[in-house]
Amino acid sequence: MIKKKNIFIFLIILGLLFTTYLLLSSESVDKQIVKDNSDKELDITTTEYVSQLKVLVNNYRQAVMSDELDVLKVKNIREDILALVVPTQYKDLHVQIVLALIKMEEFIKGADQSYKMESNNLINEALANNNWLETE
Questions:
Q1: How far apart are alpha carbons 126 and 121 in whole angstroms?
Q2: CB contact set of 131 (below 8 Å; sequence gap of 6+)
Q3: If 0-12 CB within 10 Å is exposed, 13-18 middle and 19+ buried, where does residue 43 land?
Q4: Using CA atoms, how far apart are residues 89 and 91, in angstroms rounded to an integer?
Q5: What backbone phi and psi angles, to 5 degrees, belong to 135?
Q6: Where are the domains of the chain?
Q7: Cα–Cα distance, 69 to 76 (Å, whole number)
Q8: Of the candidates 70, 64, 61, 100, which has an alpha carbon nearest to the alpha carbon of residue 82?
Q9: DSSP 103-133
Q10: What's the pLDDT at 40?
Q11: For the chain (length 136 residues), average pLDDT per consecutive 10?
């Protein structure tokens, strides 16, 4: 009777250890899956950001060159840029472009010529430092 009881307790302990092992190993697999998925999402987000920002910046540049620029158009482009999900490596560029658009809005609203020059300088600097922004 005592042997049966000892064997029964041993089997329960063995079962608990096995269950604990399975739980711990499945958590590490889940963490790896989440890490892999977040890396893929980051790649997708970066690719989407680059392509969308490129289109928006080129739309802005075309509007500036064609003198079809008004406050509403600049504001819409700025809002579209602000709506983008910004990858960490592009946050400075993002702020720089948004600032350029704000300065252009202020110029169109009646601010002095220096706002337009600052806006153009910021955009030109962004283009010079990020040649992928240029139209292909």
A1: 9
A2: none
A3: exposed
A4: 6
A5: -70, 140
A6: 37-133
A7: 11
A8: 100
A9: HHHHHHTT--HHHHHHHHHHHHHHHHH-GGG
A10: 52
A11: 75 76 64 52 74 90 82 89 89 92 88 87 90 74
Q: Could you write out the three-class secondary structure of 67-110? A: CCCCHHHHHHHHHHHHCCCCCHHHHHHHHHHHHHHHHHHHHHCC
Distance CA 77, CA 65 (A): 15
Give the long-range contacts of residues 116-124, CB within 8 A, separation 24 or more.
Answer: 120/64, 122/96, 122/97, 123/57, 123/60, 123/61, 123/97
Q: What predicted TM-score, i.e. pTM, was given to this entire model?
A: 0.66
The token pair at 127 is 């283009």
Tokens read off for 119: 């806006």
Cα dihedral 76, 77, 82, 86 in deg (nearest 10): 160
At which residue do the structure tokens 């579209």 appear?
A: 80
Q: Look up residue 20 and give its two tokens.
A: 């604990």
Which residue, 72, 77, 71, 49, is CA-closest to 133? 49
Q: Side chain identity at 77, as an amino acid letter?
A: I
